[in-house]
Amino acid sequence: MNQAYAVPAAPIMLSAEIKKSRFITLLEPACGTVAAKAFIARIRAEHPSAAHHCWAYIAGPADDQQQWGFSDDGEPSGTAGRPMLAQLAGSGLGEITAVVVRYYGGVRLGTGGLVKAYGGGVQQALKRVVRQQKIPYSRFILSCSYGQVAWVEAVVRQVDGRILQGDYQESIILSVELPAARLDEANEKLRDLSHGALLFSADSQ
User: Fold this and answer.
1) Measuring CA to CA, which of 54, 59, 63, 153 is 20 to 30 A from 42?
2) Does the domain at residues 136-202 carry the CATH identifier 3.30.70.240?
3) How would residue 1 be classed by pLDDT, with cut points 50, 70 and 90?
């Protein structure tokens, strides 16, 4: 995905008591499934005596379903993780993980009550989320002469990119990050300045 997308700016936590059970809903920015699972493991470790640690995540852009996941963690199938994921998906946010910790109070909630408790907790927490835009960057390399490097630096600045490192030998090899959606624009500017001599190419590393 090359276009910018919304992500949460900060963690959110809220707590509610429903028929003597305490539900703690936690939302966390998490880029990638490794980060999402690490957050889930941390919350599980912080609440070892809880009856359930149900979770759902969208670990990449909101429309990348390959990075979606959920778990009922012992609650009846379909009553926790799936309604939590449905709330995340409906929010349009990417890179977000939700965990709802339940301390059981001795009163059964029934299927509908559980769906409302878990899904509703995430829904309420999402209302408090501050959104920010994430711009996907890609890495590129370029070889140029010392006389051309000022052109490259100017183009990188104009498209809000950044130079990561340079290898200054007889020629200069630059490693840069550019907003993925602006690669064509960057190459057009560079082509004009260099009369077609320079282009950014994908970094295979």
Assistant:
1) 63
2) yes
3) low
